[in-house]
Amino acid sequence: MDLMEEILSRVPVKSIGAVRSTCRNWNALSKDQSFVNKHIDKAVIKRNGGSCDHGEL
């Protein structure tokens, strides 16, 4: 599950809807709070050019 979570955490936010309809496991993962947090953290890091300034990572 870790590899799948890592891969899906890199999917753009706009594509998460398509991911959720792909299979039940991916749908459940996309609703998991730890996955959501990882996805948000990766988006923040990408937006900041590779650095995280909110102190959680």
Automatic annotation (TrEMBL):
SUPFAM superfamilies documented for this protein: F-box domain (SSF81383)
F-box domain location: 1-39
Protein name (record): BnaCnng30030D protein
Organism: Brassica napus
Underlying gene: BnaCnng30030D
